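Saturday, quiet lab. Running sequence design on the structure tokens for the scaffold JK sent over.
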């Protein structure tokens, strides 16, 4: 039985030596472990041959416990700690059996079967722990390999997600650029609709300026003649007429200047700066511009424009060029609707656009004041199936090339998001459409 402790010590050294084969500590311990295995063999053979009466067991057990103590004290062997400590029962059983045989040989002879069983059980325990440790290490290695594979998959997935993120970012930037280009295209399209109307509106004050200028030249000639005659009273009367003409020239010149400045403001990018604005004046101006713009394309088109403008309307704090775009879009759509209906309606049909404004107050003690702008036409109306989509970007009921599908979408954003207002539609197919815009003062 004394042979088991030596065999266990030898196998322990070999097991540690094999486990360190691929470790960084291999170079440090390989030669020492090889020497230790030969030392175990060198002690075992003489001890078994020359020692008797339990001393081989005592020496084998002490050798095994010494190997356990040394291995347990080295940091390089800590991964094998549980397997190393599994040798403790065999070492203790060998020393106990050897001491009992030396000190109490009769007691040992009587119970030697128990001591042999304890030694064999200790040796079997070592192999059981070795098998368990080996299985655990295989599972650990498998888990490590799986972790490596998972880390690799995570890295690959992260790289894919990063690439997708970069692609999405580029797509977003492209969409934002395209959006700005489309918005600018819509602005230019609306400005194009106004071109003819602008020309008509400017032509009227320019005609007045030209006419009054010609009359003033004639009056100056008359005044020179009267002064030459010495009739100062008549000359003073003529001078008063000239003054009136000049005042009218200034009035119409400012009118033309206001139209040009308004269109320049409409065409340039919005500064998002709100300012006090006369909604009545703004709406009336864009109504006439939209009407004359359409008449420039179709000389046969005529429509009645009815205005109900609240004279007590307060100044509204808005972005004038943005609100102007909303009004222009509503007027253009209204004129388009009545023009389309006129093509198929009978002779009794009379295209009519009604513009009304009024001041409203929200209910409650602290009700805020708002301005309501209503644009109604007696045109084709909007089908119920289309009504829900009318504010969506790129949706249009007009033929290809006649609408961008952005007008009402941008109008909705300007009113709701830009000014905290509302825009509602009331319509009946074939009869009328009414857009109601409310903007907080």
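Result came back. Writing it out in full:
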């Amino acid at each position: 039985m004394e042979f088991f402790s030596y065999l266990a010590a030898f196998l322990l050294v070999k097991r540690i030596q094999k486990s360190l084969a691929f470790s960084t500590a291999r170079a440090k311990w390989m030669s020492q472990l090889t020497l230790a295995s030969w030392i175990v063999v060198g002690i075992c053979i003489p001890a078994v041959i020359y020692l008797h009466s339990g001393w081989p067991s005592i020496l084998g057990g002490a050798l095994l416990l010494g190997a356990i103590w040394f291995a347990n004290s080295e940091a390089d062997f800590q991964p094998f700690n549980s397997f190393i400590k599994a040798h403790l029962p065999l070492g203790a059983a060998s020393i106990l059996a050897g001491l009992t045989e030396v000190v109490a040989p009769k007691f040992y002879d009587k119970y030697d079967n128990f001591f042999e069983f304890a030694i064999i059980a200790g040796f079997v325990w070592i192999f059981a722990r070795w098998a368990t440790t080996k299985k655990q290490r295989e599972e650990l290695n498998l888990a490590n390999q799986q972790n490596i594979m998972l880390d690799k998959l995570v890295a690959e997935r992260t790289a894919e997600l990063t690439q997708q993120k970069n692609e999405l970012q580029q797509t977003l930037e492209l969409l934002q650029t395209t959006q700005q280009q489309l918005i600018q295209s819509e602005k230019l399209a609306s400005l194009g609709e106004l071109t003819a109307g602008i020309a008509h509106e400017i032509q009227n004050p320019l005609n007045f300026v030209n006419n009054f200028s010609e009359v003033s030249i004639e009056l100056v000639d008359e005044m020179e003649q009267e002064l030459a005659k010495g009739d100062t009273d008549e000359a003073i009367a003529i001078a008063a007429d000239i003054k009136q003409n000049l005042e009218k020239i200034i009035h119409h010149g400012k009118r033309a200047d206001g139209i040009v400045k308004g269109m320049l403001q409409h065409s340039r990018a919005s500064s998002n700066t709100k300012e006090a604005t006369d909604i009545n004046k703004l709406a009336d101006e864009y109504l006439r511009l939209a009407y004359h713009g359409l008449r420039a394309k179709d000389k046969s088109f005529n429509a009645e424009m009815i205005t109900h403008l609240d004279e007590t309307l307060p100044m509204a704090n808005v972005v004038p060029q943005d609100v102007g775009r909303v009004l222009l879009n509503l007027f253009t759509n209204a004129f388009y609707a009545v023009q389309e209906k006129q093509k198929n309606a009978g002779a009794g049909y009379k295209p009519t656009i009604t513009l009304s404004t009024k001041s409203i107050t929200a209910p409650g003690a602290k009700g805020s004041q708002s301005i309501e702008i209503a644009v109604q036409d007696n045109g084709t109306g909007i089908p119920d199936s289309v009504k829900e989509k009318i504010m969506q970007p790129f949706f249009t009921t007009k033929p290809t090339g006649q609408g961008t599908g952005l007008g009402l979408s941008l109008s909705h954003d300007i009113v709701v998001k830009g000014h905290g207002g509302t825009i509602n539609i009331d319509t009946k197919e074939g009869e009328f459409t009414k857009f109601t815009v409310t903007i907080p003062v």
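Notes for JK: The chain has twelve helices and seven strands. The longest helix spans residues 112-229. Ask whether to fix the surface positions before the next round.
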